[in-house]
Amino acid sequence: MNALHSALGGTKKKPSSLTKVFQGSMRIFSKKLPHPDLPPEEKEALLLKEEYQEEMSESTFLFLTLDLPTAPLYKDEKEQLIIPQVPPFNILAKFNGNTEKEYKTYKGNFLKRFQLLKLPPYLILCIKRFTKNNFFVEKNPTIVNFPITNVDLCEYLTEEAQVTEKNTTYDLVANVVHDGKPTDGAYRIHVLHHGTGKWYELQDLQVTYILPQMITLSEAYIQIWKRRENKDDKTNHTGV
Length: 240
Known about the structure:
Blueprint lengths: L1 H6 L9 H6 L1 E10 L6 H7 L8 E7 L2 E4 L17 E2 L1 H5 L8 E5 L2 E11 L3 E7 L1 E3 L4 E3 L3 E2 L6 E2 L6 H6 L4 E11 L6 E8 L4 E6 L2 E5 L1 H4 L4 E8 L13
Parallel strand pairs: 3-7, 4-10
Antiparallel strand pairs: 1-2, 1-6, 5-6, 7-16, 8-9, 11-12, 12-13, 12-16, 13-14, 14-15
């Protein structure tokens, strides 16, 4: 995304057509944590220092990363791994301004929370399915039961932004799916045809019609959502 932004003539200060379409902004609250192995009294003393007080900053984004819950390791009675399912609002809660998550960096451990300031015309969501360790790449198969229309993100905005952002409802227009193992899987993409309101699945050179209900059962990896520009703007989604 950053390379494409530069190729379109954009810089850190100069916008491009890419940033005009996909760029939003967020508020980040960050607080440094004492080392977990320290005695309780030392931790309490450190938490009083300025270095360990919560700081607030603002940052732009071209996509939002959504973290999946850890997949269970237990199997059912047929010795098949149980694939969990989660509502989309469970993973979107990362941006409600209250949900805290610990991040480990070379500078130390930090507790962070996020809240959105500005929503873009087109919102890209990246569902974090792959994690790397020192030995291999793991894939999380959790299914996100997302609706494909009428997703309102107002509650993830700051109070000030809720006043200024008049249009906060989105409809899905593209869905990238990863099937199979992390190292040798395949990608499919679901695309909405705006003229007819029908959904199509693309894989290599094959293009087939797909029911909207089947899209929500896929292992979504990257999604593109289009913002409604007014409350009466409803994209024609056949079969929904």
